[in-house]
Amino acid sequence: MVAPVKKYFVWAVFLIAVIVQFYFPISSIAEKNDILENGVEYKIKTRPIDPADPFRGRYVAIDVSVLISDNCQNEAPGSDIYFIRLSTGEDGFAEVSEISIAPLEGEGVLRLNGRYYWRSWNNTVMLPYDRYYMRETGAPKAENAYRQQGADTYVSLRVKNNKGVISGLYVGDMRIEDYVRE
Fold it and tell me: Which of 31, 47, 91, 95 is the most exposed place for a label (fewest CB within 10 A)?
């Protein structure tokens, strides 16, 4: 009589382990899709950098830094975690309007680790988005186009619940995927 109870227990533990293994990747994907669909969009100017990582697939390496506005409410990030508020500047691109160690409420807030740092020498905050993944065949062409058009490139970043997801890389006003096809 003890054996069937033990058998059900083993199966229950196995089933829980299977559910847990699928829960975390699926919830992460669902969260990023929610940000892409419902997040607030910001345009951020980028500049090309040369990638050197053959193990993570094809991507276009980008440097995403956001200018700190002149009237930014500023609390120097002295801790490992800080928050920034993005707003849209007069030129239509994102700028940092607030930096705080304490959590911020409202739209356009990103939670950053201290390793994504504030560059005082050019008054910008470097964001933790450094890759734009593409299909294997288009990435080399996109990288060349991106490097040639560097001054006229930007990413669109969707922000929701203190997290951000890059939704597109643009050359001029054209998505990089469309630019490469032409």
Answer: 91
